[in-house]
Amino acid sequence: MFRRILSTVKKSLSDTPDNPAALNYEALPVMTGDELIRFLNQTNRILSIKRKVMIDKLRFEKMYLQPIHRFCEIVQLAPASQAHHHSFAGGLIIHTLSVAEKAINERKKYTLPLSSEPDIIEAQKNLWTYAVFVAALCHDIGKIVTMVTFVDDKQHPHEVIGSSLLHQGVETYKMVFKPTEYYQLHQRIGVSFLPQLLDSISLSYLSAELDVFREVLGYIQNDKYEWGSVGNIVQTADRESTAEALKITNDSRKFPGANIENFGERIMRTLRLILNNNNIPKNRAGAAIWVGKNHTYAVAKPFAEMIREEMKKYGATDIPGDNTRIFDELQQQNFCETNPVDGQAIFRVEISLNNQKFHQTFTCIKIKNRRLYAADNVPVPLSGRIVEIIHESESETPVTESVTSARKPKSKSKISNESALDETVVTEAEQEMPFTESESISTAVTGAGSAETTAAGAVFNDDVSDLFAPIPKTASAKAQQKPVDMTNHAAVVRDFFDWIAEQAEAKEYTINRDSPLFVVEYQGKKHLAMMSPIIFAVYAHKKGLVKSIDSRTEMADAAKIIQKSLHNQKTNVSIAGQQVHIYKKKNSPAAKTPKLSFYLVPVTNITNSELRQMIESTDFSNSIERQFAELKENNRR
Questions:
Q1: At what angle do helices 489-505 and 609-616 cross, to 10 degrees?
Q2: Where do the structural domains in the chain lie, given as residue ranges?
Q3: Exposed site from 212, 243, 366, 468, fewest CB < 10 Å?
């Protein structure tokens, strides 16, 4: 009987692109992994993955094919979403295998582990490929818990953490969709399935190198500060798979039986339609939409009214009359930003226009531009100021975006932001904070030794560039949108930290891993350590301030441009006239490890609030340490 049901459903599945109702969603058959792969026409994709990983048949079957079969048996014909990408029977399997295939292909572009010796790279080649595969396999599996409940023919509910429907003896099932409020939880649940997917030998192999395992867990749990190269690779593959699905999928399609179309996704789709209408006022007096360099701020009440009216035009009847419900839905789906002080979706924002007597405060929703506009269709940013005002108490004291409840609620500081096209919040109190240098010469770190010291205090160490990511050779168009007035040292410092924040957000640089940026402890406080001169030279090159940074001299000269402003604003820690601090790779003999030269910047001196938050939430680096041995030798001299 079961085989007859399976045969009927297989036949009907071939008709689903044109007639989704042909499937009997009330009695879907439970299948084995192999049956699901053939059922969904994924055999060629499995063969493609096998060719790409290039290992022997036995290891492939144990380490790759067996986890794929187990994954398929766990998720069965669940969709990847209710009403977004891959929202059809078997969509979660097809999307996951697509991501795995693309990720393994993307992994070939990386030499992993970064900045390692050739023999280590060769020895760990298969491990890093396996790490990418496992991260891809697990990245969305948590949806099977947060999105659906399986119900058998006797109306008994079944969950699949720990045991698949096949092992529970279920023969047919239907899927009942859960409320969307639990959507984001799927990012935390994926790791729970690792013992269910991998046998003990494979799991031991993966976890043997903890740096690699950390990146796998970081991506599965959506921890962008831990996911490293593995996360970057799988994220790229995930976006490609999703984009391809959205191109070929009818926007109106939703999985049969879904209780509602994902309301947050419908709101975002509606908002994109509204913003593509050139008649909608933006960035001018009377507008409800204000576009900054990185975010769009939509004035809350008119924004909700526009969404409501536009959705009604398309026949929607389930739009809540309460604006808060609309904002909460966007926040739960991670479509809009969260106010770091109160955890809500609302921001108070001051808007000022250049060359106009316009200065007004609005209550807004904050959404990243990349969620709203195609890369070639981003509106010109506001010519003026967008300044967030965040209050911690009823005292109505404005504080910066990164301030926590530890700040005294009645500290009086006026919010200031002199940089046009900049959304970063900066207080005058922080800009004018007196810089305290250490009076203890015994803790000073100089650039003496084998490093070459420039007049500006930059130290270039031979082979340092090989320790981290390669230097980009061309300046990005985004980085050159607005030239910086290099005579305005405060503006240069702000722009520099904004650029670092952009690089970190785009995963060009991962702090503490594979980049010239580290979080270190100095005199009991957290500091951002920036490798000199490379980080400054790359910034100058991307901004078009220099044509080349290929040679040691060109790199040092380029770095001086930025360092001059940092020195002027007393942004970095300088001791006894020395600007650099010498570090080395941890647990490496000093004689065999090149010295690493860093500028140290206290967190309180970082002008970009998002970068400050990032640093404050990042642990101290465990890969570099101060070069105390050299310090003592220099002091004896």
A1: 50
A2: 2-248, 263-429, 441-636
A3: 243
Instruction: From the options 3.40.605.10, 3.40.190.10, 1.10.3210.40, 2.60.450.10, give the CATH code of 2-248.
Output: 1.10.3210.40
Tell me the backbone φ, ψ of residue 390, rounded to 5 degrees.
Answer: -120, 130
pLDDT digits (tens, 9 = 90+) for 502-548: 888 777 777 887 678 889 888 888 999 998 888 998 898 888 888 88
Helix or strand holding residue 582 (H, E) = strand 581-585
Tokens 């239907």 belong to: 174
At 596 the three-state DSSP class reads strand
> How many other CB atoms are found less than 10 A from the CB of residue 102?
20
**Separation CA 72–CA 597 (nearest Å):** 50
Q: Residue 327, Cα to own-chain centre: how many angstroms?
A: 22
Length of the chain, please?
637
Contacts of 250 (CB under 8 A, 6+ apart): none
| Three-state DSSP state, 39 | helix
- DSSP result, 548-573: ---SHHHHHHHHHHHHHHHHHTT-S-
Q: Indicate the pTM of the whole model.
A: 0.48
Using DSSP's 3-state secondary structure scheme, residue 40 falls into coil
Which residues face 525 on adjacent strands? 522
Spatial CA neighbour of 222 closest among 235, 207, 239: 235
The one-letter amino acid at 211: D
d(CA 147, CA 612): 35
Higher pLDDT, 455 or 527: 527
